[in-house]
Predict the structure.
Amino acid sequence: MAIRKIAQMGEPVLRRETRELTRVELASREVQTLIDDMIDTMHDADGAGIAAPQVYESLRLCVMELVGNPRYPNLPRLPLTVLVNPVVEPLVPNPDAPSDEDSVLMYEGCLSVQGVRGRVRRPRKVRVRALDRNGEPFEMTLEGPLASVVQHETDHLHGTLFVDRAETRTLTFLREYERHVPLAERIRDGGAE
């Protein structure tokens, strides 16, 4: 296992469509090592997730975890999850323009866009279908901030960065974000009670 270099915005690998993994590839030592390396890299960078293109691999693969992460102390917990060939389906009436109550407005950051945050509106409830690292199919439903996290990570698999979806006037450097964006404005979950 190793910590890999994280591609930064401008690297062509971050803008490519990824390819699906076959079950044979997934079972290979190379891909299993890649998964372990992605987990180590995510932990080392205190990330909530990381996708294969961020470590220079154009594969439809990402990992996520939100348990005791110092960068995201207020987010719900998410155990270590490996998504292979994930498909995300929004579970809101109008996913392209969700209403306030059907969306999450969240200031996002990215390990591949160091030092920048921006507010992104995403559907607040999604269904995810994928294979786990052993090639077993599974499905899960995520809501609120966790729905944003999985959409952020799977966007990487289609060559999309959060800055492509952010409200451009909210883009800010991390120092200014921490100084000027009140805690109450950092996550607005329209469906939360």
In short: The mean pLDDT is 94. The chain has six helices and nine strands. The domain at 12-189 is CATH 3.90.45.10 (Peptide Deformylase).
